[in-house]
Structures are given as structure tokens and as C-alpha cells.
Design a protein that fits this description.
There is one protein chain. With 375 residues, the chain is an alpha+beta fold. Among the domains are: 101-251, Rossmann fold (3-Layer(aba) Sandwich); 267-351, Double Stranded RNA Binding Domain, CATH 3.30.160. 24% of the residues lie in helices and 29% in strands. It has helices at residues 3-17, 24-32, 65-69, 103-112, 130-139, 151-163, 199-203, 281-290, 338-351, and strands spanning 43-47, 54-58, 75-79, 96-100, 121-124, 144-148, 169-172, 185-194, 205-215, 223-229, 235-243, 267-271, 295-299, 307-312, 317-324, 327-333, 361-364, 369-372. A nine-stranded mixed β-sheet has the order 7-6-5-8-9-10-11-17-18, sandwiched between helices. The longest helix has 15 residues, at 3-17. The protein is globular.
Amino acid sequence: MSDDETLRRGLADRIAAGGQLRSARWRQAVIDTPRHEFLRGGYFRRVDGDGPTGWEPVMAEDPAWLPAAYTDDSLVTQIAGTVAPGDIQGRIFRTPTSSSTMPSLVVRMLEDLQVKDGMRVLEIGTGTGYSTALLSHRLGDDLVTSVEVDEDVSLRARAALGSAGHMPRLLVGDGLAGDPNGGPYDRIVATCGVLTIPPAWLAQTRPGGQILATVCGWMYSSELTRLNVDDDGTAHGRLLSGQVSFMLARPHLPPSLGVLPDLDDGEERETDLGPETLDDWTTRFVAQLAAPHAQLVRISLDGGEARPVLIDVDTGSWASHSRDGERWIVRQGGPDRLWDRIEEHVSRWRRDGSPDLDLFRITVTPHTQTITWPN
């Protein structure tokens, strides 16, 4: 048995032990698919220090490269929209824009996709091509289409898929538009986060088909949802348990903060809901439903302690908290009162017993998206 086959079997065993890998067909796909082929161009290793987070390249000749390919970790493969590991030496201090998702999450989503033989699948976000290869192994190349917004990323994925023996249909374009000329599909699966499910995905899913995607907001609490598409082109479903996080689709990324608001402006009041409540993933998701375009940042004034501030760039609304002894004070400015909306929404959720996210229901039409909880 070769070294990489041993590593593949070990990866399959670990994912199965974690409960994400649950069926023989997907297990065989993991065992037969060499993840390292999809990382031939290297990956970026995170380097933390006293300053900003840095990233340094790890190339195929590095002894750490092959074992890392078979860890259950997400591995960053692109920085700042264009920079690949082979493009630099040393470190880069920019934001990751593409990665090879942790295998257990990839497999968990593929299991949750509930595919059957003969089904056609559209994947949004080819990335390195690893998940595309698993789909092709399970269903056959002819039944898999994958769309990627970045042409260079798609070209590297095509080469890696060929090395692994697969030739699915690969498209370069805006994944939010799906594949207008290729539907309808039995399943659509997205490997990027979205603020709302695009209408194109509804239109391109066969009635009775399913969409599996991660819904998010700009406070970056996100959840996986599985939607069943109805005959009338609407869809309904629920959130699936477990915290799932993907990079947002590029058109859904938040805007630059620009000029920060004057935090001495606005109106002030006492609040029972302090900003520490947003440290909790579930509470932050609920808050996000009330203010999906609010970004949560920390701002230090005059060298003092950094305070949490919510900013909605589009409307110019903002909310900032400060302590007055045992009390929390919120100051709000702009045309909208962000914290009023969040406080009302979170308080109502708590009055209803703080139901878990896997009890939430989601309904999507071509024009609206609604997420609610039982009460």
C-alpha cells in the first residue's frame, strides 16, 4: 500500500469516527480520491504573532506538505484574490480568498445532499476541485457540473481533476447565476456562503429537487440549510445542526467600511442586551436576521479600550456600546436604529424559549427569503 493510500484510508477512518462519513459509497470515494493532487500548487500556512495574521507558502517539496493534505483541516490556497502559494516567498498579510475545505465538512455536505444514482448535480464553487472529484466518483463525470468565478482557480482544478481521472463539466462564471443553459438539476450544492439564496438556483432546480447551501450575514454567523424546491418555484426547508462556515461568494462580500461614524453623535439609552451576547454563535445568527447588513467591528477611541460597534455602510446607521457601572449604554446614529431591531428580535427569540438553530425554518421565493423559529 502506497504512503498516500495509507493517508487516504486514515482520513476516511477519522471522518467516519467523527460521524460525518456515514455510507460505503462516500467512504470509497474518499479512499480513492487523492486530496494531495488538488494541492499540487501548495497551500498557505497561518502564522500568528503580535501583529496582523500572516500566511507563508508550503510547497509540494516541503516534508510537511503531504501529511497536511490528509489532515482534517481547511488549507488556504489563494490570498487577496490572485496570489497563489508559488507566487511569493516569505509571508503575506492579506485576506484568504480560496481554500480547500476541511474534508469532514465536504463529506458531511455530500452526505446531507442525499444524492441517488442518476441524479444531476450542480456545484457552486469548484475551488481546488476535491469535492468535485468526490461527486464525480459517486455519480459519474457526466452528471456533475461545477462553476467557479475565478478562471485561474478553475484551470488548476481542471488539471487536478484530470490527474485524478475525472472530467466533469467545468464552467467559469458567477456561481450566483448558476448554469442557465444546463438545468434543471436534481441537486445544487454551494461551497461558498450567501446572504440569500439566488433566484437562479431555484429556477435551475427540478421540482422535488434540493438545494444545499450556507446562509450567512455580515456578522459571520452562518448555517447550512437544505431546501426542497416546490412545483411553483419556491423552496422551503430547515437549518441543519452544526456550525458551518464558508467564505462568502464574492458578490456577497461586505463593502469597505470607509469613513467611520462619529461615535459621539447619535442618541443614547440604557439597554438590557449587552454586546457580549453577540459572542454566542446562535444569538449572533438571530441578531443577524434583524440586521443582515450590519458589520461588527471594534474601534478604539483615543487609545482607550476597543469597543464593539455595529455599522451598516449602505444606510449609514450604527450602534455602539459602553459601560456605565453595571449598566450597558447603547448609542445609535443614522436613519435606522440597529440595536433597537436586534434587541427586539433577540428578546422575542428568548421569550420563545431560545430554540436551537436546527428548529429554524427557511422559506425562499424568487423575491424573498424568510427564516423563522417555532414559538
